[in-house]
C-alpha cells in the first residue's frame, strides 16, 4: 500500500511539474522558444495561477513521496540519497512558486537553483542505486535514457546562457523540465515494478532426486 502511495505521489509530482504545457491550450503570448518558464507565473500572464499551483502541487507531492519512501526502509546509500534529495526538491519547488521572479528575484533564483540541483542529485543517486544496489530496475533503461536527455538539455541551457546569440534558451529549458517530469513518472512506475518484482513468488524448486 505504501509503495503504491509513493508511486502515485511521484506520478502526480511529474504531471504537475509539467503544468507549463497549459500554455499550448491557453496561449500566454510568451515566446516558447526564448522565454523562461518562470515568466508564466508573473501576475500579468493569463491563468498564471495554473502554473503557480502546478509547482506547489508538484513540490508537495515530491515531499509526500519522500516521506512515504522513508517509511519503506530503503537500503543503500544511493536509494536513501535519492529520497532525501527529492524531498529537498519538493520544498524548493514550493518555495520557488511562492517567490515569483518579478517580486522576489533573488529568492526565486536561489530556490530555482536548489530545486534543479536537488532533482539532478535525485536522478544521479537513483540511477546509481538501480545499477549498483538493485533498486528500481526500469531506471537502468528508460530512466537512464530520460536522464541523458535531461543532461543534454541542461548542457544546452548552460552553454546558451554564456554565449552571445540566439540559442533558443526557452526551448532548452522546456525540454529539460519536460524530461524531468517524465523521469519522475518513470521513477514512480519503476518503484511499483521493483516492489512487485521483489515480492512475487519465485519458481517452485525442483524436488531432490531420491537415492537408495
From TrEMBL:
One Pfam family of this chain: DUF998
InterPro entries: DUF998
Keywords on record: Membrane, Transmembrane, Transmembrane helix
Regions crossing the membrane: 56-74, 81-100, 106-126, 138-158, 178-197
Name the UniProt record assigns to this protein: DUF998 domain-containing protein
Species assigned in the record: Gordonia spumicola
